[in-house]
Amino acid sequence: MKKLTERQEEFFAFICSCIEDHSCPPTVRETAEYFGVSPRAVQDQFTALENKGYVRRIENRSRSLKLLVSKEEYFMGSVEDEESEEEKARKEGISVPILGTVAAGRPLFCEENYSGSLTLYPPIINKTDAFFALNVRGDSMINAGILDGDLAIVKQQSTGRNGQIVVALLDDTVTLKRFYKEPARVLLKPENPKYNPIYCQDVKILGTLVTIIRTY
C-alpha cells in the first residue's frame, strides 16, 4: 500500500477523527468547511485516498466513506509503503543487453553476439517488454538522425507499422531500415539517397527502434 502525502494524511486524520467522535464519516461539505477548500478539492482528496486503498466510497450516500485502514494502523507505522514496478524501475534501472556485430548465419540473440549491457530507466523503456541494443554501423539512416557509432535501443517484437524504423533480418544480415508493407512485398527504405531501397518478400522483423544513444 502506498503511503499518503502530507496533505492526504491531513484529510485521512480528519475522517478518522470524525468517525471516532461522531461514529460516522464527514460529508464532503463538512470536510470542505473544515479545510476551507472547495467541494471539488475534497472529492479529489477522497478519490486519492480511495485509489490508495485507505477508504471506500458507497454510492448515493452523503456520508459515503468507509475506512479500510484504521488510524492506528497508519500512524503507528504498520502500513508499509509499496512502490510500483515503475517506481522501482525508475530507481534501479533496467538492464539492456548490447549485441555486437552479427556474422552471417549467426542468430542475433545468441551468446556470441553479447558485448555487455547498459542500464536504462523509464519512461524510455519498461519492464513489461523486452529490449536490446545494437551498435549502428554505416550511414544509411543518416537523414533519420541515426549516425555511424550510435547505439540503437530496440523493442523486441516481430511486427512493425508502416513508417517505423525496424531491425530486420534479411538473408542472414541484420539491417536497420524504415519499414513499409506493400500489397505483394516489403520495402526496407534507407534514409540516405546514396543507398537503394530494398524490396523483399521474406523478411523477419526482430524489433522496432525506440531511441538512439550517442556519445561524443
Quick structural overview:
With 216 residues, the protein is α+β, with helices and mostly antiparallel strands.
Tally of separate helices: 5
- Please indicate the count of domains: 2
Coarse structural class: alpha+beta
State the fourth-level CATH superfamily of the largest domain. Answer: Umud Fragment, subunit A
Helical percent range?
10-25%
CATH class of the largest domain: Mainly Beta
Task: Show the helix and strand layout.
Blueprint: H1 6-22, H2 28-35, H3 39-51, E1 55-57, E2 65-67, H4 71-75, H5 85-92, E3 94-99, E4 114-120, E5 131-135, E6 151-156, E7 165-170, E8 173-181, E9 186-189, E10 198-200, E11 204-213
Parallel strand pairs: 3-5
Antiparallel strand pairs: 1-2, 3-4, 5-6, 6-11, 7-8, 7-11, 8-9, 9-10
Polypeptide structure, described:
The chain has 216 residues and is α+β, with helices and mostly antiparallel strands. The protein has two domains: 77 residues, Winged helix-like DNA-binding domain superfamily/Winged helix DNA-binding domain (Arc Repressor Mutant, subunit A, Orthogonal Bundle), CATH 1.10.10.10; 125 residues, Umud Fragment, subunit A (Ribbon). The chain is built from five helices and eleven strands. The strands form two sheets. Strands 4-3-5-6-11-7-8-9-10 form a nine-stranded mixed beta sheet. A two-stranded antiparallel ribbon has the order 1-2. Strand 7 and strand 8 form a beta hairpin. Helix 2 crosses helix 3. It is elongated and about 80 Å long.
